[in-house]
Amino acid sequence: MTTRYARVLLKLSGEALMGEQQFGIDPTVTGQVANEIAEIQGLGVQVGVVIGGGNLFRGLAASAKGMDRATADYMGMLATVINGLALQDSLEKNGVNTRVLTAIEMRAVAEPFIRRRAVRHLEKGRVVVFAAGTGNPYFTTDTAAALRAMEIKADVILKGTKVDGIYTADPMVHPTATKFERISYLKVLEQGLKVMDATAISLCMDNKLPIVVFNLRTAGNLRRVIAGEPVGTTVMAE
After folding, report:
1. Is the Cα torsion angle 64, 68, 70, 73 positive or negative in sign?
2. pTM for this prediction
């Protein structure tokens, strides 16, 4: 099978590991995500993953309730490490060599993020999970995904969500909302579409890095995106 992309950065929200639960990690769902990643890795695609922590802790929500924002964000970064380790465990059960690299040093559980080392792992066929965001408060894991994608020279950011693309409005709330097949970075920013935060979109726009938004919950979708099938919505320059 021919693949459109040689190296990808998959962005997952923490909620992607939660399944139907209200909180935490569902091992079954994590296993399904790992299966999807293992499938494309088996096709020779180099895969980096950035994962959020919203299923365990949300820094923004905590700061809204009075917690110091920087402290809350650091706690959120630690939540992404927990998710990264859970995903690593599932991937390795699938026989996929995986490395978790963290922006905050914690050598007992993961390697520190060093760009050249990350690229070397990818070249050796390992899946690299980037945890702890950018290592800085006030930046989201969306921005971390854009940053890491640029650093490893990924061909595309694949944003796995629970909807099958970008719509004119929230399709869960507005059933008449229509889906975009393609949309420009500027339109995403102008229309305030909740794809990724504005910092991440701007970073992708400046570096002409395409983003594909697709439904991760549909089995086989990740492979279809890699094959170049018309899945989800592509955000790119006009």
Report:
1. negative
2. 0.95
